[in-house]
Give the backbone structure.
Amino acid sequence: MRGRSYDPLKRLTDALAAAVLLVLTLPLQAVIGVLVRRRLGSPVLFRQPRPGKDGRVFELVKFRSMLPVDADADVVTDEQRLTPFGARLRSTSLDELPTLWNVLRGDMSLVGPRPLLVQYLDRYSPEQRRRHEVRPGMTGLAQVRGRNEVAWEERFRLDVEYVDNRSPLLDLKIMAATLGTVLGRRGVSESGGVTMTEFRGAERARAGRPGGLSSDAS
């Protein structure tokens, strides 16, 4: 079973697994919520519109890991906003526990291409846009092949590879590999920064031109 024939089973598995994981992690999420409130202030949750399957936009939810933007500050970078507490939260992926609600609601899947920014929708090549043929995932093939250290062109190639080859066995392999990636805290950020540089479009990605905003800034 693979491809479209796998999708109904995949959705059922996602919903059941997300429901169980939400119940099991609620005490931990409560503790993290209190710590985020004390260390980073309000709001505790980071909410941002992201494109899902077929480009439909939903609201992604996770724990905030950065200080809020200070309107009075002259320069506010991701490096300045990311505290040691926030860095630990991101490196362990504990900031993404609330995203299980997105999986339960059907916005996302446990495994699939990571949901990026809405403004990227008009920047994809037709081949890159195929990443939206499936629900975005909490983890995916690109994440276990390097996480945020993977260049944009390679990341999108891996996303499309997943779309074409999705199956129960591949999902199990990705989830198992994700544990190793998270425990090893590999690829949390792009080399030389605390987040992934902005995707400016297929041509600029091949030219290696950096951007500014992170795809996962919170």
Observations:
- The CA atoms of residues 125 and 213 lie 20 Å apart.
